[in-house]
Design brief:
With 377 residues, the protein is an alpha/beta fold. The protein folds into two domains: 3-270, Spore Coat Polysaccharide Biosynthesis Protein SpsA, Chain A; 288-371, 3 Solenoid (UDP N-Acetylglucosamine Acyltransferase, domain 1), CATH 2.160.10. The protein contains ten helices and 28 strands. The chain has helices spanning 38-45, 61-67, 103-109, 111-115, 135-145, 160-163, 202-215, 220-228, 249-261, 263-270, and strands at residues 3-8, 29-30, 34-35, 51-55, 81-85, 121-125, 129-131, 149-158, 167-171, 177-182, 189-201, 234-238, 243-245, 288-289, 294-296, 299-300, 305-306, 309-311, 314-315, 320-321, 326-328, 331-332, 337-338, 343-345, 347-349, 354-355, 360-362, 369-371. Strand 9 and strand 10 form a beta hairpin. It is globular.
Length: 377
């Protein structure tokens, strides 16, 4: 049995457009030292999937820098490893002037590499899903059921706002999918939500990609899966661990701060035995805390300098907090500088932001403030 992996890096960029103006969603920082792509990459590596294709489209320079040769995920290999597939690398895609809007558009854009796959199965995953899932168990379940496609789902109580950003899955008692409701606008209640992680037979993937090119299909769910339900064996795999889907900037901000507040969430992501979340390792100096600094309930990366107060916040590498400065309920990306006497709350500062001395800025938990990359306030 052989398994390949496909990761979609750009599909959900519009969800948090503030952070993806100059980067892919896959390379958005998360949780003090990680990037969002670390979760699908690690899930695959922990399940012995060592031939992984990352479909990129634009703004993927930081993604390439983060992944590098793949050595931090043990993917620097003579055969297989991790590959970034650039956009428009087939004759079909060269005729397309629009951006990839769906997974199927992305698959059509890399039709040739897919046609050359020889594995038995393919695992596909989006980058807006934060979870630590045992894909080995899911693959075994897929093989045992004889399914064409197995989709990871989680039973949840849904609000209309959450439901309209996700696909609802309906299935029989034996796990066979009977209906799919993509992005409903008025659904609420208890239902199975797709995690945007699936196992598919390689031959079926190649077949549906060819058909999509021939017939102009654009949506994997609506044009392929929903129409194929009567004649194909689609099944669910129930996942009971922690799962977060980033559908907005407010979601992203909330889930980051939950890492501090919710130990169960933190442990279910980073404390699972034999399933670590890998990321790029950087050899930074330890963080310096001055005698007058105060740090409470926060995640602080290496290479920071803390001379003020930090509470309920996440600081990435190289952040400097000046004397008398106060940082509360905020997220500071790499190399942000908070000047002496400044105060910020419910704010996300992108990379290389400078907050000058004695400046006071604050958002709210329901509407966090965003300071763009490289800005000086």
């Amino acid at each position: 049995m052989s398994v390949d992996g496909i990761i979609f890096s750009n599909i959900h960029d519009h969800n948090i457009s503030e952070l993806t103006r100059l980067r892919t969603l896959a390379s958005v920082p998360f949780g003090c030292r990680y990037r969002l792509i670390d979760f699908p990459l690690s899930n695959m590596v922990n399940s012995n999937i060592t031939n992984i294709n990352v479909i990129a489209q634009y703004n993927y320079h930081s993604l390439m820098d983060h992944i590098g040769t793949g050595k931090d995920w043990d993917l620097a290999r003579r055969s297989g490893g991790v590959k970034i597939l650039p956009p428009y690398i087939t004759g079909y895609a060269n005729n397309v002037s629009t951006s990839y809007l769906t997974r199927l558009d992305a698959l059509k854009g890399v039709h040739y590499p897919i046609s050359q796959m020889t594995s038995d199965y393919v695992v596909m995953s989006d980058c807006n899903v934060i979870c630590n899932i045992d894909l080995n168990d899911m693959i075994k379940d897929h093989i045992a059921s004889g399914a064409d496609v197995t989709m990871a789902v989680k039973r949840m109580d849904l609000t209309p706002a959450f439901a309209k950003e996700n696909t609802i899955i309906f299935s029989s008692r034996d796990g066979r999918i009977t209906d799919m409701l993509p992005y409903p606008t008025n659904f609420f209640g208890n239902a199975d939500v797709s995690l945007n992680i699936l196992v598919i037979n390689r031959q079926y993937l190649q077949e549906l990609t060819r058909d999509a090119v021939a017939y102009g299909y654009t949506s994997l769910t609506r044009d392929v899966f929903v129409k194929s339900l009567p004649r194909r064996n689609f099944r669910t795999y129930r996942y009971d661990g922690y799962f977060a889907c980033i559908s907005s900037f407010e979601d992203y901000f909330k889930y980051n701060l939950q890492l501090i507040e919710d130990k169960e969430m933190f442990d279910s992501l980073f404390g699972v035995e034999d399933r670590p979340i890998f990321t790029k390792v950087r050899n930074s100096a330890p963080t310096y805390y001055s005698d007058n600094s105060t740090v409470k309930n926060s995640l602080i990366a290496d290479g920071c300098t803390i001379e003020g107060t930090v509470e309920n916040s996440i600081l990435f590498r190289g952040v400097k907090v000046g004397k008398g400065a106060v940082v509360k309920n905020s997220i500071l990306f790499q190399d942000t500088v908070i000047g002496e006497g400044a105060s910020i709350g419910y704010t996300l500062c992108d990379k290389n932001v400078v907050i000058r001395e004695n400046v006071v800025i604050s958002g709210h938990i329901t509407l966090p403030l965003y300071v763009d990359k490289g800005k000086m306030v």
